[in-house]
Every structure is written in C-alpha cells, then in structure tokens.
Amino acid sequence: MAGKVKWVTDIEKSVLINNFEKRGWVQVSENEDWNFYWMSVQTIRNVFSVETGYRLSDDQIVNHFPNHYELTRKDLMVKNIKRYRKELEKECSPLAEKDENGKYLYLDFVPVTYMLPADYNLFVEEFRKSSSSTWIMKPCGKAQGKGIFLINKLSQIKKWSRDSKTSTFVSQSSKEAYVISLYINNPLLIGGRKFDLRLYVLVSTYRPLRCYMYKLGFCRFCTVKYSPSTSELDNMFVHLTNVAIQKHGDDYNHIHGGKWTVSNLRLYLESTRGREVTSKLFDEIHWIIVQSLKAVAVNASPSLTSSTANDRILKYNLINDTLNIAVPNGEIPDCKWNKSPPKEVLGNYEILYDEELAQGDGADRDLRSRPGQSLGPKGSRSRDSGRSVLTTWK
Amino acid sequence: MLQEESDLSLIIAHIVQKLKSSNLYAQLERQAWISLQRPEIKLESLKEDIKEFFKITGWEKKLQNAVYSELSVFPLPSHPAAPPEHLKEPLVYMRKAQGSWEKRILKSLNSMCSELSIPLARKRPVGEQKELLSKWNEMGTDEPDLSLFRPVYAPKDFLEVLINLRNPNYENGDSLSFRTHLGLIQVPLKVKDIPELKEFFVELSLNTGQLGIDDSTQVPPELFENEHVRIGQKVLAEEDSAAAQQYVRQGSPTALRAELWALILNISSQPEDALYYEQLKTNVIQHDLLVDSLIYKDVKLTASNDDYYFVFEDYLYQVLLCFSRDTSVLGHFAYNSASPPKSYIRGKLGLEEYAVFYPPNGVIPFHGFSMYVAPLCFLYHEPFKLYQMFREMYVRFFFRLHSISSHPSGIVSLCLLFETLLQTYLPQLFYHLREIGAQPLRISFKWMVRAFSGYLATDQLLLLWDRILGYNSLEILAVLAAAVFAFRAVNLMEVTSLAAAEAVLADLSTLKVMPLLQIFLFATVT
C-alpha cells in the first residue's frame, strides 16, 4: 500500500527535520513501524550490536552501515588499509605494485603509522631511525580534534610503552588506544596557513560499491600562520584545523569560520600552480577515497551543527540531496532496490564510483558521457575508475 | 595630414623621453655593447645589424611591449601647447570639483589627526621596529585599538559629490522632455550607446567563444576551450603584450591568467624590483603613518570578513603599507585629475620648502580600498610580485574609480553610462525605481567603485577583470551593472522601497557575468 515514508531520529537538528518535513514524511517514534531512522552513533551501536541488536526488515533504511566504525576509528582504519594492501599483493593485483624502495606506487596514502601501545616497540625502532622527526598522537575513538598532540621526544609518550612502570597496576586493555603517525611538516600552505579538506561521501550500497561525492566540500583553515618550528608544537591552533579547536582561538572569525569551498581551492591552485598538478591532486584525492572505502566499510557522524549561516544552508542541501539518492521519489524503502539512481536526482553529488557501471558492458562509454560538474569552476573531464583501473586513473 | 604628423611626433618624442629613463633602456644599451663581440655585427652596417640582433634575441619584443604599455596608459596629447592640467583633466569645472573634494578629504584627515592627537607620521622607536619586522608575515594577528579611527570617506560620500556636479556652461532649460535625464548624474558627458558598445565589445558577441560561457561542462572542450588554451600558450611563448591583451578579451584560462596579466601590464620581475620592494618594506618598518591605521581598519572591516579573501589578510597589509610609501606612484598624477595632498612639516605651514606629499604615494585610502588588492592574491603568492601587479593595476585603472574626471573610464562617465543604459533600454524599470525613491545608481555605485570586488564570486570577478585588461577600459563595469538590473528586473518591478530594492540586489555571488553581459549587449531587443 502506498504511503508516506515514516521517519524517526534521535538527533534534534533542524537541517534533518526540515528536510523530512518538506517531503511530507511522517514522524513516528522508535517503537512504531518506521522506514527511515537517522541514528546517532550510540543508537547504531545498539541496533547492530550482537547482544541488543535486531534485524532490520526489508522496508527499513538507516543512515550508517553496521561496520561504519571501521573507518572512524583510526586504529581500525589503519589495520584495514594494511590488510587490504596485503590482500591485493597476494592476488598479484597490479594495484599493489611497489617501486625499488618498497614503497607502494598506487596505495601509498597513509603515512607511517603504528598502534599504541600494541606496536610500541616497532614504533621506537622507527623513531630512532629518523631522529629529528615529529610524530602526531591521535586517540582512536575520539573526533573533532580532541586529545591530539604532537611529540618529538620518546619521553613524551612514556605512558604507552608496554613495560612502563605506570602500567603495573593498570591492565593493558584499559590504557587508551592511540595511533601515532609520522607528522608531515611541509604541508601545502595557503596564505601561510595549514588547511584540511572536509568532503562528504555518500555510500548507498556496499555490494556493489556505489558511492557519491558531494561537490560542495570545503577546506578549513588554521587561524594562525603555520610554523614547523619546535616551539610551536604545543600550539594546537597552528597545527590542527578542526573547527571545534579553532573556534576557541582569539582570531576565530565568526562570520566565515575560516572555510573555503573546494572550488575556491581549485581556482587558487590552478591559478598559482597550473592545471595539470591541480587535476592530478583531485584525481588522487578521489582515488584515496575509493580505495579506503574498498578497504573497509563506512563512516560515522559528520558534524551536523552549523557554525555559520552559509554552513547551515550547505548542510541542509547536503541532507536534501542525500535523501533524494537514498530514498528516491519518497518511496517506501525496499531492500530489493538495486538500480542506480537516475542522473537528475544526484543534485550536488556526483558519482565517485559505481561498481556495477564499472563492470557492466559499455562501462567506459557511460562514464565518459556522465554529466554534471566535477569539483570546481572548471569542469575537468576526469575519468572515473573503470574496468581498466590503471589506465584511467593514472 | 600635418596635424596628424605633428601629433605622432609629439607622442614619439614623449615615449622616447619616458623610456630613456627606464631600466629597459639601460639593458638595451648593455645588450648593444655586448653584441659588438658577435661576428655577424659588422661596422659598415652597424645600425642594421644591431637591430637584427635585437629582433632575434627578443629584445625588440620587449621594447615593443614597453612602447605599447606607454601608449595604453598615457593619454594622447591633444595640442602641443596644452598645459599639463589638461592632460590631467581638460574640463575646468571637473578640475575645480576634484580640487574641492580633495580639500575636504585632507581636512577630514587632519581633523582626525588632531582629535586623536596622532601625528600624520612618526619615526618608530627601535624596539617597535624590531617587533614589527618579526611580525611582518602575520600582521593580521595584531589587534591595535582602531575603534577611534574612521575611514576618511566611504563611496556614498563620494557619490553625493558626483550628484552635485554641474557644468556651468550647460543649460538645458526647465522644461522636462523625453530627453531629460532621470538619473542622479547631471553632467553632459558623452557615453556610448548599445550599438557603439556592441562594436567596442565585438569579441563578446554571441558568435565568439568565451571563457565563462563556452567552457562550462555541458560544452565539449573540443569546440572552443582546448583551442583557446593552445592559443594562450602560444601568446605567452611569443611574449607579446598586444597579442595578450587581444587574447584575454575572450577570457583567460585559469592556469595562464597570472602570466597573461603580467604580460599585458608589462611587468617582468627583475631583481631591482624585488630590491625596491624591500626598500619600501624598510620604510614601513622605520616610520609609522596615520594612514597605516586606516589601512588596518579597512582590511579588518572588509577583506577579513570576506568568504574568499580572508585567507590573504596578511598579504594585504604587506602590499598596502608598502604602497603608501611608494613615491613612484606619484608619476600617475600626470594623467590623473587628482593631485597628491600636501602636508607641511610641523610649524612650517605654508612654506613650500617644507611641503611633503602625504601619504608619500599621494593616495589616501577609503573604505573598501583593500578590495582592489584582494582578488590578485588568487593569482600571485609572492608578495613583491603581488605588489607590482597591484601597483600597475592601480595606476592604470583603479585610480579612475575615485577621482572626478571626464575620462570615458572615469567614475563619472561610468555612472552616466549606467544610468543612460538603464533609462534607454529599461525605461519602465528605471521609472518605477525612481518613483519609489530607489535611484538605481545608489545601489550600483558601490559595485562600480570597487570594480565588483567582494560582490561577485572570485572566478567570475577574474573573468570580468580579464575584459577590463583586454579592452583597456572600465566601461564594462557600467554595462555589467545595467545587465544585473536587467536580470533581476522582474523582482525589482515588484518592490516598493529602496530597502527592498537593495535586498533584491544584495547577493550577486551566484551571478555568471559573461552570459549576463552577452545577453544584455547582444540578445536584447534595442
């Protein structure tokens, strides 16, 4: 029987609720029959956990895959990438090719990383090899920049050493897990500042892999000029770009919040560095995303809190386009859905990778005639990954 | 015939004189001496051989570019006996108006100075100098107390002056007729109409490929974009200013723009230029000027809050503070109707020997001035290159947007052009807006004074400035302003107050300039 989609959410955010209401969907409670549940991370855990979880019925959709934390938790992500690489190597896939120094040619997108305290000794060996390097410590389970710090001396992470005296009364498992990575201290700077990229990717199905990249991603800038000098290691405003951290800096400007759209970034890079390297940069970013997804599952909560008016508009439109793809035409969800959505509903998303299209016949032709602009004011006619992955990507 | 010949020789003489004192001349001389070593240079045909040598080695091209640059900048002298004021501005009433405006500005500056008891200039103590030097790359983090400073003037103050301009020799009678100009500007300057604009901007016509239209993703690049890029690369390889200027009329590819603009403005970064910039920087470190605070305030109020330009805040200080101290800028007052303000050493008021130009470059910044620099930060990331480009853009174009003159690219003409286009081709809209007390110029003035910087998206702004450079004229600003009104005409016809009209036109950030211009010029029934 045709009816309106019934929705539930446990996150009280206007960008979500406005979108549901504008489609005429009906709000219900968790205990009733629902079709669409936008869940917070905690709820997801409960739904999919072994003890308290329950099976979703065929007409129910949620906003996260069961194993989303495989991408969120930094230690799991690292494990997954390392495992993925080994698997490809075993299959003798050309993707796993290495150069003379043993570096992966196409899969080298994670800096040297170790898990602490598990890999402490391995880390120490590596640390001693490159004595004056800086490393960044990130807690596995936290987000928004919480708990991150930089070190350049072993003494600063004594706590995590396996045979440290402080651990005699504390069991290993309750010491908080961290990952430690080589800090890249010559980042690309704009206006002398460091920035990072916030890109939105929607994964609608896992097998076959169908993912979409939102064209309107953005960069977040540090408020303070970047300096690699050791005296600034403690100054988190220099090194971390998370808005949550930058917001508390003296210079944080509330009107624009230190962000640029990805198209601005593209314009700036093309103007100052040329077309080829800019296209290459964006191709490689897309590549990393697709490979990471293949290595794993899916991500947890992007912040739905809006810091500026522009931000609110962006997130509203983002959710709008997301819902258009995930629940096309406002139909009641059906697990048998398997079609790729038609191009018109993509909105500001563009196809990042569609395994079915990629593997079907005439895939190349379809991909090349794909409409819609890619990131940036210049539509670069970049090719998506097709069957012959190597020739199209690199 | 005779008149043309003597005009020509006047121009040639002038250019030769200008170039003789330039760096290029010294370089050419040096090259000529060096060439004597070469076997193909023979004594009997010395002149011809050296000329040939220059041609082959590209020096002739550089000279051509320099001459072209001079021609583009300097107005053609109308009569050998014309006094220098005529080069600045031929019409007396305009000169007078500019003079009194300048007096007002200077008075305002001086009174701010005495109210706040801050000297116009002072030498910094050594400690302060050291501090500033160490903070040179992040002056944006400084938070001096600027609350007591106000901008010397804002565009709307300037507009009031323009509205009151009258030509005392012009009497159009009291009776209203269809010829009566309904707008705010009441001086009879000649401005182009649409047929003339179509001719002037012929490269923007519907049949010609444009970047900003024909490079959108729906259009296959083989149709226009690829070929255009190829030609652009060729132009750059040839190092020909005139060709580059012609080329960018159809828009410049993003990756080539920085070089093309430098070629058009004939900016080549020599070591001497870097040194000169360092010298200016030293001047900034050693002396503090009152205008510095005005610059700080302006940047903080405008560029720092802009979605695109906030990243470049520190570059803006580095450029503008040096700009204030650059006396080479004084050269442009020869063809600018404005004159540099004079100030006197303390206690020596009125004594010419103790007069100095203030600020040293003669340009007092107003509210929004820093927005002239901001878009260039997207193209040039070395401060001294950025500086050179901005300075040249200023002395060629931007100065005309805030001085009173009869020049076709001067702000007065642009305002009149805007109003005339609107009244002629959108009379219903114009009349309606006027009736509700929303004279269109009151809204569009600020766009034109800033050359649309801060109002358009950056990529669109750069496409617009491509055409300013390409046509060596600012008239496109007035045409775009009219095109924007035409585009939003339906909504504007429904508003009933100035505030509502402002609201309809508040956000231009989603506009695509080239389609708007094309439609207005070439696809509207005239």
UniProtKB/TrEMBL annotation, chain A:
Subcellular location as annotated: Cytoplasm, Cytoskeleton, Cilium basal body
GO CC term (a single one): microtubule
GO molecular function annotation: ATP binding; tubulin binding; tubulin-glutamic acid ligase activity
Spans annotated as Disordered: 360-394
Origin: domain of life: Eukaryota
Alphabetical list of Gene3D superfamilies matching this protein: ATP-grasp fold, B domain
UniProt keyword list: ATP-binding, Cell projection, Cilium, Cytoplasm, Cytoskeleton, Ligase, Microtubule, Nucleotide-binding
GO terms under biological process: microtubule cytoskeleton organization
Family matches, as InterPro entries: TTL/TTLL_fam
SUPFAM superfamilies: Glutathione synthetase ATP-binding domain-like (SSF56059)
Listed name of the protein: Probable tubulin polyglutamylase TTLL1 isoform X2
Automatic annotation (TrEMBL), chain B:
Highest rank taxon of the organism: Eukaryota
Pfam family, one: RabGAP-TBC
Database matches in InterPro entries: Rab-GAP-TBC_dom, Rab-GAP_TBC_sf, TBC1D19
Alphabetized PROSITE patterns for the sequence: TBC_RABGAP (PS50086)
Domain Rab-GAP TBC: 251-472
PANTHER family documented for this protein: TBC1 DOMAIN FAMILY MEMBER 19 (PTHR16110)
Name of protein: TBC1 domain family member 19-like isoform X1
